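Entry 14. Structure prediction run on the chain below.
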Amino acid sequence: MIASGATMTESNPKADPEMVKAIRAKLEERLIPKLQGKRFRRKTVVALNVLSIIDHRIGKGEPPNPEAWEAVRAAVRTDRPEALPQIDAAEAAIEKFANELETKFAAGGENVEVARAAAAKILGTGIMRKLKLASETDEEDEPKP
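Output returned:
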């Protein structure tokens, strides 16, 4: 992490100034505009909310939280209403899985926490892959030539 007001070369005096300049230009050209894009922001909010739900519901075994799902729906309702059925399906699948975990591990034990952590990680990875958050381009946010 670079301290406020510091330059990249100050944090690493051995850094090649030309390489630093090239990296900075690439960040300014590609990454920063994407981070400012409306679609990317929306997908990030949805992903973070769903990952949080998975962590609480599956990873920690907390009770259902309808308000959390409503926050996910609210993030897409205006701009992407066609995504609402997918959110409903995700909620149903996560609830079904949570209920199955609760039934299988009703007696408790040390394996419950391990199973919950593993399940939450697998589901979270699947969600991120499904959303293609890290790799998809956001055409609607890119300037037209």
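The CA atoms of residues 58 and 97 lie 8 Å apart.
Filed with the rest of this week's runs.
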